[in-house]
DNA sequence: AACATGGCAACTGTCAACAGTCTTGCTTCC
DNA sequence: GGAAGCAAGACTGTTGACAGTTGCCATGTT
């Protein structure tokens, strides 16, 4: 029933659970489903055309990511972020990315790393002419790349767990406002610092960048 | 069927899923289930006396925590840690706890915080005469408290997601070896630094502590 | 009108069964 | 004797149904 037309091209055959997970994550982080909304399993399973069991598995993952939280009677609802929580999220994010920058600075051969980072920068530059959503994607991609290039899987995993919350923060504050802090210049400084191997400077640049981002988002 | 004798006292009525989650987490982090072991749903569900559906939900959470990883065909197996991964885990841990220390230093009134931390220290001291496992629990409790006292839920959540990996690292390296790095003195220095509000020193103390811990575990 | 009460509807927790796929070992044919 | 094919087994993906609990609403009582 679920093995028909897909995978005609390189389309990885994705399980229904993963599809549901992606769909829900998107719907939540874009605000399509408003914060605080009570997620009723029976409704959602009908909407997504999947069974409750499969849906519940996806919900557990979202819960672990902090996008939805459990109420009294096992009731799950979309997490609501206030200003303080956004600051908290960005503080943790800063700590993680600062670690990433320091680890990259400690590498012997940073040539390849720098190359990848500059590629991500170019992508941001290209996206700066496009819509807000493209810019946000490019920005997140840059930071994800930063963490991924360290080769520290735990770091990348932790950052990934935070990504949903970051997206919610951006959505909560409004995309226009969020875009203020995504200048290619600021990010270039980070790359420059890493290129010269100046760990302190790179760490500082990131911390400041995140501080600024949080301040802009909170208003 | 599951609503019999429990909750006679303050025993929170825990869902089967949560029980299974706790049982599995314990079994994995103590090495009862060896790293690399392929977790067969049908077997486990029979062992734990729960249905596969319920078990699968618990497995998703463990997967998100990084205790089990997915293989080719959706096969789940207990994660195997090598030396590098242990170092990586402790690097992330250091970044998180360092943030915690800095946030605590930034508080106006640290009296209550210090009181709680000293209480955790005392507990460690008391446990130092007990078995290795008690000492490890007391140690983890201290660090968890450190993160919890910041009031930064995201930080605490991230640390919690790492806790399983930390336990696996300790188990992997052997409890005796791990216990070397749990002196009350070292932890006291951290608390002292926080008491004086010296963020740099507190951060430094934690980073060094974690560095030492990783080195002891690996080498 | 305020209040107790009995029953109904809404949800979540849990389970057993079906379907599809990959592996494996055996059989059969050249 | 070896290789292609075939059939059985082992697991995971997914589903629909049943059970228990909570909250609400209508109904009757004082």
UniProtKB/TrEMBL annotation, chains A, B:
A UniProt-annotated Pfam family: FCD
Alphabetical list of InterPro entries matching this protein: GntR_C, TF_FadR/GntR_C, Tscrpt_reg_HTH_GntR, WH-like_DNA-bd_sf, WH_DNA-bd_sf
Keywords: Coiled coil, DNA-binding, Transcription, Transcription regulation
Coiled coil spans: 107-134
Sequence ranges assigned to domain HTH gntR-type in this UniProt record: 14-81
Superkingdom classification of source: Bacteria
Name recorded for this polypeptide: GntR family transcriptional regulator
Naturally occurring in which organism (per UniProt): Arthrobacter mangrovi
Gene behind the chain: pdhR_2
